[in-house]
Amino acid sequence: MSVRAWTVIAAVLTGADAIRAFPNDQSRFTFTGTLDLRLQKGFGIGRARLAAILDAHNAISLGNEVEERVVTGSGFRTVTAVQPPRTIHLGARVTF
Fold this sequence. Notes:
Blueprint: E1 7-12, E2 15-20, E3 37-45, E4 48-57, E5 65-68, E6 79-82, E7 87-95
Antiparallel strand pairs: 1-2, 3-4, 4-7, 5-6
Protein backbone atom coordinates (compact mmCIF):
# COMPACT_ATOMS: atom_id res chain seq x y z
CA MET A 1 0.00 0.00 0.00
CA SER A 2 1.42 3.34 -0.99
CA VAL A 3 0.66 6.26 1.28
CA ARG A 4 1.36 9.78 0.16
CA ALA A 5 2.05 12.25 2.92
CA TRP A 6 2.93 15.89 3.03
CA THR A 7 3.83 18.30 5.74
CA VAL A 8 3.00 21.91 5.04
CA ILE A 9 4.83 24.70 6.81
CA ALA A 10 2.48 27.66 7.13
CA ALA A 11 3.58 31.14 8.05
CA VAL A 12 1.20 32.58 10.61
CA LEU A 13 1.38 35.69 12.76
CA THR A 14 3.17 33.82 15.57
CA GLY A 15 5.70 32.12 13.27
CA ALA A 16 5.99 28.96 11.20
CA ASP A 17 3.74 26.06 12.14
CA ALA A 18 3.57 22.51 10.74
CA ILE A 19 0.14 21.36 9.54
CA ARG A 20 -0.83 17.73 8.84
CA ALA A 21 -1.53 17.47 5.14
CA PHE A 22 -2.44 13.84 4.43
CA PRO A 23 -5.94 12.44 4.03
CA ASN A 24 -7.75 11.17 7.14
CA ASP A 25 -8.26 7.62 5.89
CA GLN A 26 -4.76 7.11 4.46
CA SER A 27 -2.89 6.61 7.72
CA ARG A 28 -3.75 4.16 10.49
CA PHE A 29 -2.20 3.87 13.92
CA THR A 30 -1.65 0.56 15.71
CA PHE A 31 -4.17 -0.13 18.47
CA THR A 32 -2.53 0.27 21.85
CA GLY A 33 -3.94 -1.51 24.86
CA THR A 34 -2.45 -2.77 28.09
CA LEU A 35 -3.57 -4.97 30.94
CA ASP A 36 -2.90 -3.38 34.32
CA LEU A 37 -3.66 -5.39 37.46
CA ARG A 38 -3.85 -4.63 41.19
CA LEU A 39 -4.09 -7.25 43.92
CA GLN A 40 -4.65 -6.03 47.46
CA LYS A 41 -5.19 -7.99 50.65
CA GLY A 42 -5.95 -6.34 53.99
CA PHE A 43 -5.18 -7.68 57.46
CA GLY A 44 -6.24 -6.44 60.87
CA ILE A 45 -3.42 -6.10 63.40
CA GLY A 46 -4.86 -4.89 66.69
CA ARG A 47 -6.32 -1.44 66.05
CA ALA A 48 -4.16 -0.95 62.93
CA ARG A 49 -4.79 -2.27 59.45
CA LEU A 50 -2.10 -3.61 57.08
CA ALA A 51 -2.65 -3.94 53.34
CA ALA A 52 -0.28 -5.85 51.05
CA ILE A 53 -0.38 -4.52 47.47
CA LEU A 54 0.85 -5.93 44.15
CA ASP A 55 0.55 -3.78 40.99
CA ALA A 56 1.44 -5.06 37.51
CA HIS A 57 1.48 -2.59 34.62
CA ASN A 58 1.44 -3.98 31.05
CA ALA A 59 1.04 -7.42 32.64
CA ILE A 60 1.14 -9.32 29.33
CA SER A 61 4.20 -7.32 28.18
CA LEU A 62 2.92 -5.94 24.89
CA GLY A 63 5.44 -4.01 22.82
CA ASN A 64 3.22 -2.14 20.34
CA GLU A 65 4.24 1.15 18.84
CA VAL A 66 2.89 4.25 20.55
CA GLU A 67 4.54 6.91 18.43
CA GLU A 68 5.76 7.18 14.86
CA ARG A 69 7.47 9.66 12.59
CA VAL A 70 4.89 11.51 10.51
CA VAL A 71 6.97 13.87 8.39
CA THR A 72 7.49 13.39 4.68
CA GLY A 73 10.51 11.42 3.54
CA SER A 74 12.04 7.98 3.60
CA GLY A 75 11.44 7.66 7.35
CA PHE A 76 7.68 8.28 7.10
CA ARG A 77 5.77 6.13 9.63
CA THR A 78 8.86 4.59 11.21
CA VAL A 79 8.38 3.66 14.86
CA THR A 80 9.90 6.15 17.31
CA ALA A 81 8.53 4.76 20.61
CA VAL A 82 7.04 1.51 21.90
CA GLN A 83 5.07 0.59 25.02
CA PRO A 84 7.15 0.31 28.17
CA PRO A 85 7.87 -3.25 29.37
CA ARG A 86 6.02 -5.05 32.18
CA THR A 87 6.60 -3.51 35.60
CA ILE A 88 5.68 -4.97 38.96
CA HIS A 89 5.38 -2.95 42.16
CA LEU A 90 5.11 -4.46 45.64
CA GLY A 91 3.94 -2.34 48.51
CA ALA A 92 2.40 -2.21 51.94
CA ARG A 93 0.07 0.30 53.58
CA VAL A 94 -0.48 0.69 57.28
CA THR A 95 -3.44 2.67 58.56
CA PHE A 96 -4.22 3.33 62.21
